[in-house]
């Protein structure tokens, strides 16, 4: 009888993906705190090969886009400076490995 196969996790890559995932939530909080409530996050990709957060909504012009970028960058810097502790947990009614359907945030000001 032979041994079965096993899983091996690349810890450095897993930690990078966790940081990118947290960054996506921080961006969403920063957009909300910046007062751009017309923008709603619809999709996030939290992997090293091109991470992004996609939003639905419109900005009126390039001036508003520049204001958004400046405000979001300021709020992100503030969130990083706060060094907020984060942790992951599994909801009791959620199978392991299945993403949550709720859009809950754990960062200050995240609704």
Could you describe the 3D structure shown?
This protein is of the alpha+beta class and 111 residues long. The protein is 40% helix and 10% strand. It has helices spanning 11-33, 62-82; strands at 40-45, 52-56. Strands 1-2 form a two-stranded antiparallel sheet. Helix 1 packs across helix 2 (62-82). It is elongated and about 60 Å long. The N and C termini lie far apart (55 Å). The model is unreliable at 98-106 (pLDDT under 50).
Briefly characterize the structure.
The chain is α+β, with helices and mostly antiparallel strands and 111 residues long.
Search tags:
2 strands, 2 helices, two-stranded antiparallel ribbon, 111 residues, elongated, alpha+beta
How many DSSP E strands? 2
Strand content: 5-15%
The average pLDDT score comes to 82
Distance between the termini: 55 Å
Class by alpha and beta content:
alpha+beta
Spatial order of the strands forming the largest sheet: 1-2
- The Rg value, from CA coordinates, equals 17 Å
In terms of topology, how is this protein built?
Blueprint: H1 11-33, E1 40-45, E2 52-56, H2 62-82
Antiparallel strand pairs: 1-2
């Amino acid at each position: 009888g032979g041994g079965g196969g096993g899983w091996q996790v690349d810890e450095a890559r897993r930690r990078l993906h966790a940081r990118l995932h947290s960054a996506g939530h921080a961006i969403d909080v920063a957009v909300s705190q910046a007062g751009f409530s017309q923008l709603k996050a619809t999709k996030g990709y939290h992997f090293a090969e091109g991470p992004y957060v996609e939003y639905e909504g419109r900005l009126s012009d390039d001036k508003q886009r520049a204001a958004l970028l400046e405000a979001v960058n300021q709020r992100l810097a503030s969130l990083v400076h706060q060094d907020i502790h984060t942790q992951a947990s599994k909801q009791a009614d959620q199978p392991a490995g299945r993403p949550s359907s709720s859009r809950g945030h754990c960062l200050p000001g995240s609704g």
